[in-house]
Amino acid sequence: MSTASLNRIVLKGFRSIREMDIELKPINLLIGANGAGKSNFLSFFKFARELQRKSLQFYVQTNGGADKFLFFGRKRTPTMECRIEFSNGQYATNLSAGAGNRLYFSNEHWCVFDDAPKLDGLELSGLPGGMESSLPAVYSTDSGHEISAQIDSWRVYHFHDTSPEAKVKLPGGIDQTDSLRADASNLAAFLRSIRTSNAYSLIVRTIQRVAPYFVDFVLEPQRENEKYINLRWTHAGSDDIFDAADFSDGTLRFICLTTLLLQPDPPKVVVLDEPELGLHPFALTILAGIMRSISIRTQIVAATQSVTFANQFAHDDIIVVDRVDEASTMRRLTRADVEPWLGQDYGIGDLWEKNIIGGTP
Questions:
Q1: Burial environment of residue 325 by CB neighbours within 10 A (0 to 12, 13 to 18, 19 or more)
Q2: What whole-number distance in Å separates Cα of residue 179 and Cα of residue 152?
Q3: How distant, in Å, are the alpha carbons of 180, 286, 341, 343 from that of 31?
Q4: Is the pTM of this model over 0.85?
Q5: Which intervals hold domain ATPase AAA-type core (predicted)?
Q6: DSSP 190
Q7: 178-189 confidence digits (pLDDT tens)
Q8: 316 near 332, Cβ under 8 Å?
Q9: pLDDT (tens digit, 9 = 90+) per residue, 31-79?
Q10: CA angle, corner 6, sides to 292 and 307, nearest 5?
Q11: What's the gap between Cα 122 and its chain centre?
């Protein structure tokens, strides 16, 4: 697994972000009003992944074209700038709107630090005018490979769909086990692939804390087609086998989140959009505890609208997102922001709800 940590993201002209420079820590919980720009920031992780996979043009075109990615469109913001800093290198690029409502690379720069001092690193630059990144294939160092693999693993996990047609409730390929999909469509296959691990036992025990009636998963292929598998499970006191549709929406989302966070080899960075949806307050406390415990090896970047969930975290875990002069702004809470309230019976979420720390309409 990659040892590179994500240290900082600098953005100019990306979606609702005119200019932003934010340091990333083990836990980064975004709070703010609807429309403040939390999801826009999270979407940058998906944007960077598609860029690194040489799929930028397809992604841009299927999401509205270049104007949708530039701050108030190309007339106001013809070029966006982004820089991603890791503990062992950085990636930076400028992208400009061009013909066909596409984004073109104005410049691109990759710098890898293999050893101290950092000046001994490898620096690479791409040619301007390209439609796809020219750098992902050029990794002659272990650090370069680590950074590439980390960006490639970035997904925005958003387990909102629990409708009857949700992919997590439908049969999935039994061999889809490389990583948990962003929509948990391969949850059954993924759980099957880790069922002999200690992590699987921990996942089951954690689910039982929130759903005591849950006994275990039944992770066998379909009888009629062994290439496919459904998510099935057993209930305490019953010999019947139940399927994913028999879970409540909140329980199913909690199972997806627990599997993502407690898997044997989680992503270096986990990006979550509103993980609190449909969860009981007790489940939220369990989820927050998991996030805190794994943050020593996995960075968490998440957005929430839940006061209860925000109450589970320390002030320096919180990034407040506001809309100021038409643009999204982001700032990490400091001790000075909450000093007058320390020692009193208020959580960060309570201060947020009272509009003491910002992040409200």
A1: exposed
A2: 12
A3: 26, 19, 19, 22
A4: yes
A5: 200-308
A6: H
A7: 999 999 999 999
A8: yes
A9: 999 999 999 999 999 999 999 899 999 999 999 999 999 999 999 999 9
A10: 40
A11: 28
